[in-house]
Amino acid sequence: MLSGTQGLLFVLALSLLSICAQQSVGRVTLENGVKSKVYLSPKITQHPGSVSNKFYYDIEFPKGHIAIKSFNAEVVDEEGNPVSLQETYLHHWVAVRYYQRKGIKEPKYNGNLGFHQSDFVIARNAGVCSKGLTQFFGLGSETRKTDTHVPDPYGIEVGNPLQVPNGYEEKWLFNVHAIDTRGAVDAMGCTECRCNLYNVTEDEYGRPLKPDYVGGLFCCYDGTQCKVKNGVQSVKRNLYLKYTVEWVDWSDSIIPVNIYIFDVTDTWENTGIHDCLIEFNVEKNENANDFTSIRRSKASFPISGDVVYGAAHLHSGGIGSALYGEDGHVICSSKAIYGEGNEAGNEAGYIVGMTTCYPKPGSIKITKDEVLTLESNYSSEKSHTGVMGLFYILVAESSSTLDASVQIHQDSVVPIFFWGVSVFGLAIFAAVVVSYRRQRQSEDGYHSISTST
Ligand SMILES: *[C@@H]1O[C@H](CO)[C@@H](O)[C@H](O)[C@H]1NC(C)=O
Ligand SMILES: *[C@@H]1O[C@H](CO)[C@@H](O)[C@H](O)[C@H]1NC(C)=O
């Protein structure tokens, strides 16, 4: 995919990585007014069976008041070659926007730091979960073959100085969760975070796991080790999340879109609160002709607008997912694309892409307070642990409601809209979610990122 010169630059850039923690690859390129740049995350060191689930603060990101047009990523090795999911399973990556008080020391890599929450606030997407799933962008194993481009005339507005509170700067963080399954006794089991394979009885914070907790993020946190075959050598290697961002400079001709993420575990229908649990398990169906396990949740929608884009996030075993309007019409249906070979981007047994929706502008509308239904289908031919059912849509707010919110927020430092992009939620946020529960604080309308204390 890279041309010769780009490839060379890429290798050179990578070789500098031993010196620099983070290094963008090449320059900004311009095509039809769209700028594009390739970046590398900080180094991710792995060995067979290892799990890396780290937070990287203040990642490289395009500067200025811009509209994001696409955000793609993949795992590469030190030579810049794509790494197969069969070697390193990309459980998820998410990019989260936050505001950091000026003059505060940058947090070091890792999730488990304490922050003064007033120094560090998440500038989240537009909804709908009340905690977690705050990211603008994010995907997992499907990242190589899932379209993320935002069609014209729409864009995800970021870097608007008027939205950043006084004394703060806008920054971005990554959470990347990668599982090295080379030499694993049960590679799929490692990717599903089955607790028995990780020899884990306590979560990341030393709290005992419930006996019925058989798999999920609490068993494959940073530094855990999945079981590998006897005799497998523990050879370290360094990887990077390579991410490509496309954007245009902000202008009045761009129609901003809001990012919404729905979760099939959202308890809203029963509790009235968008408690998004992120993960669930699929039980094996022992005796049926139909091996489809269907799960549904409902959520009322906060604004009126036009759907511009939609895509689901599922884990292995996932079949498809759809979002329905209150009268039952399909807003978007997104299906899992499985690989069929061994090469990166086509790994057999793994979801390598999700189909997406680009409705004809104005053809799919959602109205304020409409109750939407999310449906996620998994195969129950085998049991699955720690799977997810998320749905990500971009919505351009109808002009009438847009004008109203502009007036309401005119003299407020709170971002008028939390446009963004985000995709999947990633479980990543399990860690954030835990403390977020304890430390929830929204007096200024932001959400704390604090992850410990
Ligand atoms: C599993 O964990 C226990 C206690 O943490 C440890 O004693 C044991 O050696 C571990 N087993 C393996 C196979 O790593
Ligand atoms: C889920 O499965 C049911 C039953 O097979 C089917 O009717 C429905 O269309 C499926 N939904 C999606 C989104 O694939």
UniProtKB/TrEMBL annotation:
Q: Which UniProt keywords apply?
A: Membrane, Signal, Transmembrane, Transmembrane helix
InterPro entries, per the entry: Stress_up-reg_Nod19 (IPR011692)
- Kindly list the residue ranges recorded as spanning the membrane: 416-436
User: Known Pfam families for this protein?
Assistant: SURNod19 (PF07712)
The residue range of the signal peptide is 1-26
Indicate what this protein is called per its UniProt record. Stress up-regulated Nod 19
Q: What is the organism of origin for this protein?
A: Lactuca sativa (Garden lettuce)
Record lineage: Eukaryota, Viridiplantae, Streptophyta, Embryophyta, Tracheophyta
